[in-house]
Amino acid sequence: MRILTSLCLTLFVGFSAIAQQDSLFIKRMSDEIMTNGKAYDLLYELTKKIGGRLAGSPQQQQAAVWGKRNLELLGADRVFLQACKSPNWKRGGTDFAAIVGVQGEARIQPLAALALGNSMGSNGMIEAEVLAVANFDELEKRKDEVKGKIVYFHSAFDETKIQTFRAYGESGAYRRSGASRAAKYGALGIMIHSLSTAPDNAPHTGSMVYDEAYPKIPAVALGPNDAKMLYALAKKSQVKVQLQTYGQFLPDVNDQNVVAELKGSVFPDQYITLGGHLDSWDVNEGAHDDGAGVVHTMEVLRVLKALNYKPKRTIRFVLFANEENGVRGGNEYANQAKLNNENHILALESDEGGFTPRSIGMTASKEAFKKFQSWSSLLKPYGCEVTFGGSGTDIGPLAKVNPSTVIAGLVPDSQRYFDLHHAKTDVFENVNKRELLLGAINIAAIIYLVDQYGVKP
Amino acid sequence: MRILTSLCLTLFVGFSAIAQQDSLFIKRMSDEIMTNGKAYDLLYELTKKIGGRLAGSPQQQQAAVWGKRNLELLGADRVFLQACKSPNWKRGGTDFAAIVGVQGEARIQPLAALALGNSMGSNGMIEAEVLAVANFDELEKRKDEVKGKIVYFHSAFDETKIQTFRAYGESGAYRRSGASRAAKYGALGIMIHSLSTAPDNAPHTGSMVYDEAYPKIPAVALGPNDAKMLYALAKKSQVKVQLQTYGQFLPDVNDQNVVAELKGSVFPDQYITLGGHLDSWDVNEGAHDDGAGVVHTMEVLRVLKALNYKPKRTIRFVLFANEENGVRGGNEYANQAKLNNENHILALESDEGGFTPRSIGMTASKEAFKKFQSWSSLLKPYGCEVTFGGSGTDIGPLAKVNPSTVIAGLVPDSQRYFDLHHAKTDVFENVNKRELLLGAINIAAIIYLVDQYGVKP
Description:
Chains A, B: Homodimer. The monomeric form is inactive while the homodimer is active. By secondary structure, chain A is of the alpha/beta class. The first copy, chain A, folds into 2 domains: 29-89 and 251-453, Aminopeptidase (3-Layer(aba) Sandwich); 92-246, Glucose Oxidase, domain 1. The first copy, chain A, has 13 helices and 16 strands. An 8-stranded mixed sheet of chain A has the order 1-10-12-11-13-16-14-15, sandwiched between helices. In chain A, strands 3-2-9-5-6-7-8-4 form an 8-stranded mixed sheet, sandwiched between helices. The longest helix of chain A is centred in the first third of the chain and has 35 residues, at 2-36. Chain A starts with a helix and ends with a helix. The interface between A and B is medium-sized, with 26 and 26 residues.
């Protein structure tokens, strides 16, 4: 009994000493980031000096050059590029939508509209009656009325969902596949309610995909206020609208992931990846999406170097190419990992904005998750905990080629994200310095803990 | 054993059924608030149609009229006023500060400056050398150098403190008592670093108090960028500055708390108070401080009426007068409670902004706190938990006259609060609708739970 007590005490003291040492190191990282953090200044450069960074734009190339240079300056052991081909979608003009008649009478009322990413131009002005439907179910019920019309999907968020990403998940289906679902029944174009939580009228673009079986009709998102007005009007009256868009694909372009590495001193063949994506949409500065993830990644490298930390495992800092309308960068990263037979133990992405972090979401086995969850107390002073289920679009392909990789994501407070996601309001001014830095602290903490203790239960 | 098991099972099932019923009612409140909430629209009226509301200003009176009318429209059983006298401090002019010489050579460099609330005017332009000190310790060490100078206190926040209210607590001493501490040794005026977290140059005002034993010298807060520049300069060079302010007190004015009530059906003599304060500083719209608390309070009344909730206990919805530079409203509320021998079981204030709520802080006995803490799981879906230690300036006096009252406060995320607190940037545009509504949901939930189950352990 005495021996057992003594053993327990030793274990406990041992564990406490480790926990205390970890707690102290995380505090040092936090102090260094809050005092000397460069994430905010780097974000200023990326958003204000470079700007929007759609794949195929000169800015995306400039951003890659900027990223490579800065990762080198921050003192990575090596920085390299992973070449890929990215799609080259161009908006091609100023999208136009307007109400031009109500119940057969002329009325001109412009609508705030943005063509969805990857959608094709309208080939001139389209004029047609609106068929307004609440959802796909109503579309199917009224499929005989669709032909020759412009379908409006009332894809407004379910505001009662406290986690806005859940509402986005539901409404997102209309942006992604609404066009082909309507084209199947002869629609000439579609309009959706922007995937937005904002009490304003800014339209939000974002990626869509055509089903090759049907005509590639134009697709736009309307500003929330205009969308609600149109929906109410079209539910009780015949409404005629005009629509013109200019989208087109030029040939794929040369693109690249920018990868920095700190070589592991004990387990160099175990890789820990963290990253964000360099590209953005064309209508904004991509400050939260995903400038924040890019500078989070760079800040973690900076703080590890500033504190002269020597990782046990190899840590990769990745600025992914082309997340928004192709995921070509994420796919290439997974391809290379497979080709080189790399053992990735953890991949973490920051792609939900630079808001106050609430948790690190981790997708892992039940046993491994228990271990991660025990780290929650170490994150608590920085406002975070470890929750189950994290991911990121760019690290998804890695999880497919290497199912044992623990996939994780920074989970910031989600209330403001869809106010500005893919809208012109996603600019530097809407990022808060302390909130941004806090994200970097929590990512740095989890990367440090995985580097120290691995991912085995 | 069987009986015990059976008893436990009954208790457990009983508890579960209650918890489920509570969870459902809170969800109904949440859905109602997120769908039909009026807090954001009311805040627009208060900030944009009325504006800044310093005690003694016409706007503070307009706000009281507006508050009373709206609380009546929302269906309170009764709405009444509690008269008080508030101080009538006037800024009196456009505060001025500038560097006018460095090392004896003329140089003109204006400094962003705001006189501190309650500070007296300079009686014309003061020109003097700056004595820059890091803190009170340095002031004491260098007291012989103070006479005839303008003292600058480098009261910048400790940025490493993740909870910004802690940094505010430390730096706040310089705003409150810096002037008299320096006047004691013959200073002609003081300047402080604004109590700000923002990476900008907006000066932040706020309340100060003179020690009657010393001359009432002028006191200003400098914009953070200018303050840092001045501090660095004055540490290595002789710097001369000019300072002019115009503050004065006019005779006290008639003011009032606006109080709405829902009468309890079972324990009408047990009072639950929630509130925020109607007044603000003169330089902004008082949107977060404390428009948010005012409309939180009104929204809770609205949702209880919308769901036809009949409280067991008497619930008071209080819009306090004059928090900022006198706490006359809070004192009067406590006086009336004492005079009328009211039994206040809970008082909760929302006065830390309209940001995403992180917890409800509750100050209570250990035993009572255990009970409150068990409600955390009911708040979790709305992003909150119950934490120990909540308060509010306006409910502090009530706690003094009635020490058994549980004192609570909404604790929103604190990262952005001191970016705009008491600065011109505290305007409606910087309040997020969903974050604001989430605050109301969590307050409503805790008020409902206390109404249902009281505060006894």
